[in-house]
Amino acid sequence: MTRVPDPAPPSPFGTPRLSGRVRGLLLGGTLAAAVAVAWVLTRDAAPPPSAEAHVHGAGAAGDAMPVTLGPEDQQRIGVTFAAVERAPLEREVRTVAQVTFDETRVRTVAPLIDGWVERLHVDFTGQAVRAGDPLFTIYAPMVVAAQQELLLARQLAGDVAGGTDDAARGARDLLDAARRRLRYWGIADDEIRAIEASGEVRRTVTLRSPFPGVVIEKGVLEGQRIMPGDAAYKLADLSRIWLEGEVFERDLPAVRLGLPVRAEFTALPGDVRTGELTYIYPTVDPETRTARIRVELPNPGLALKPGMYGTIRFEAPSDPVLSVPRSAVLSTGERHLVFLRGAEGQFIPRLVTLGLATDERVAVLSGVAAGDSVVASGTFLVDAESNLGTLMGGMGNMPGMDMTAPTRPGEAPAPAAPAADPHAGHGE
């Protein structure tokens, strides 16, 4: 009986392992097959558009698409229209100002004689004086000598009054010269007449104010020696004042002399003063880029005090320019855009260049013409519709994008376009 050999016992390590060479061949073949399949499936497909092509947001006007909105949609988002007008663009220039002295009405009182001040009649800063009011009493040796000459000349004129004409004329000339000398030194005529009437020399004389004003500086004290030309007082006539403010450099072309000005003051609520612009300073501050302007105002009752703050307002006219409402312009920092009203509810985006602006309107230097109709309100929403149309138009052909328009309640959804078969035309 023939014996059948027993089968070989199973290996304790499982299925016999393939050699490294065999495994490498199998892996390489698998990768090659995958690459071939991918090439077959994608060789005719168009490359997907980049993400940058679909992000428009606040791009240039060339990226924004025209928008068509029906009357109901326009009413829903609050669209109104305004015409592009050509007219002078008047704007109000407003600036903070400060009351100052009228420099042409500020004067210094300086004696023409030297001496010692014995009494002050005006003894504090801020005191108001009138022309002819006494300022101070002074002892001046030169004035004492001049008084003696005056009395001698007067006596001589009386002695030769009955003499020859030449002698009488000479005595009168000498008397007039003595009076004139005292008058030139600031001695009042009534005091000179009092000296002649009394026939006595006065030890002191009183110097009086030659003009009215308010003492803004006092440089003299009782007992002080004062020399000719020393500033004893500085007086300012406050019946008229200056109101000085600053305007920005960009507003200077609109600032003209003689413009009517309205002035308001914090300390005088409701009190509006009117005047005119009288001076424009010839320099610009290099740090603030502003120029000073001046307005002269009457000051009855001295209600306006130097140092007081106020506000200057005036209308700055311009030449006729094209302008639109400020709400019609959509600004993003890189562009300025308006939407022109087209036919059949179409809105066309247009880039514009802007000029001067007022509180309500802004000048347009380029991009529109007179008579054009632009969107005056709802501009932001119209721009959003335009950007959405641009975005969706660029993404409509992207795989997986469902471009079915949304439906209102009660309406049947529009049939969606059949998706393209990625394997059409390739076979299996």
Main sheet record? 6 strands, antiparallel, barrel
Strand portion, in percent? 25-35%
User: What strand order characterises the main sheet?
Assistant: 4-13-16-15-14-17
Overall structural class, as computed from helix and strand content, comes to alpha+beta
What is the alpha-carbon Rg in Å? 49 Å
User: How far apart lie the N and C ends?
Assistant: 60 Å
Question: What is the 3D shape?
Answer: rod-shaped
Average pLDDT figure: 79
Instruction: Count the beta strands.
Output: 24
Number of helices: 6
How would you describe the overall organization of this protein?
The chain has 428 residues and is of the alpha+beta class. It contains 6 helices and 24 strands. The strands form 6 sheets. A 6-stranded antiparallel beta barrel has the order 4-13-16-15-14-17. Strands 1-21-20-19 form a 4-stranded antiparallel β-sheet, with helices on one face. Strand 22 and strand 23 form a beta hairpin. The longest helix is centred in the first third of the chain and has 23 residues. The radius of gyration is 49 Å and the shape is rod-shaped. The two termini are 60 Å apart.
Features:
single chain; 428 residues; alpha+beta; six-stranded antiparallel barrel; 24 strands; 22% helix; disordered N terminus; disordered C terminus
